[in-house]
Design goal:
By secondary structure, the protein is mainly beta. Helices cover about 10% and strands about 35% of the residues. Strands 1, 2, 3, 4, 5, 6, 7, 8, 11, 12, 14 and 17 form a twelve-stranded mixed β-sheet that branches. Strands 9-19-18-15-16 form a five-stranded mixed β-sheet, with no helix packed on it. The chain starts with a strand and ends with a strand.
Length: about 280
């Protein structure tokens, strides 16, 4: 199943995508404008959703970020072996966590603002997963039972702000620095520990090309680690880290310029495509 949010004349609507058509996602006959409330209505079980009224063909609809107001956006640093190698750092003994907030979320094809004076903005293609139900202290072997599914993400990063302190959050949390989408593909289609091709392209040039089997900490391991620390809620998002090829590790370094577009494509999910625009 693919779950998306689409813009309609009456406002945002959570939708089920079937082929090229979008249908309102209903729980007990009700529609919803954001995913967390819908997940609570179905107790985290997307099988209880039913397609309602047709919303139209995807070609004529604006896709929004699949989750607009998550309680948490948790990000993982240094989680691909080859990425750790390219930046000259040892493999971490535990997943490095940092955060974004919902101000950073934009849709799969929305513009991303480049703040004034920020000339070291970098790209990070990432697999994100979304939590289906409230959970705490979940063993890795049971992670599939609390996962809703997966989407593409770009952990956009302003490297100068990121490096000013030992914590990375300042460079990660700018408005618009978390493109998500184009939809969520549910875990029953991709599994709890997927091995997927992931690519990032800057104005059509491949910059990142890897597979999620290079993850140091797998999706189930991340669920176990994070849920031991904090309760996870329906709609919480976890960005699992980026593979090698980021601009800061290139020689010469390559950062995003105004007017350029970065695409994140993940096998079995789809592609997000965001143009960067100077503020």
């Amino acid at each position: 199943m693919k779950l998306a949010r689409v813009q309609t004349a009456g406002g945002p609507v959570v939708a089920v995508i079937e082929g090229q058509e979008a249908f309102a996602a209903l729980a007990d006959g009700r529609g919803f404008d954001d995913l967390p409330a819908l997940l609570e209505a179905v107790a985290g079980d997307p099988a209880r959703l039913r397609p309602g009224d047709a919303l139209g063909d995807l070609s004529g609809l604006r896709l929004l970020a699949p989750v607009a107001r998550p309680r948490k956006i948790i990000c993982i640093g240094l989680n691909y072996r080859k990425h750790a190698a390219e930046v000259g750092l040892e493999l971490p003994p535990a997943p490095p966590l940092f955060a974004k907030w919902d101000n950073a979320i934009v849709g799969p094809y929305d513009p991303v603002p480049l703040p004034p004076g920020c000339d070291t903005v970098d790209f990070e293609a990432e697999l994100a997963f979304v939590i289906a139900r409230r959970c705490r202290r979940v063993p890795a072997a049971e992670a599939g039972g609390v996962l809703l599914g997966y989407c593409c993400a770009n952990d956009v990063s302003e490297r100068r702000y990121q490096s000013q302190t030992s914590q990375w959050t300042a460079g990660k949390a700018f408005d618009g620095f978390c493109p998500l989408g184009p939809w969520i593909v549910t875990v029953d289609e991709l599994g709890p520990n997927p091995d997927l091709a992931i690519r990032g392209r800057l104005d059509g040039q491949v910059m990142q090309d890897s597979r999620t089997n290079d993850l140091i900490f797998t999706v189930p391991q991340l669920v176990e680690f994070i849920s031991f620390i904090m309760t996870l809620e329906p709609g919480d998002i976890v960005l699992t880290g980026t593979p090698e090829g980021v601009g800061v590790a290139r020689r010469p370094r390559r950062f995003i310029q105004p007017g350029e577009t970065y695409e994140v494509e993940i096998e079995g999910i789809g592609t997000i495509r965001n143009r960067f625009v100077a503020e």
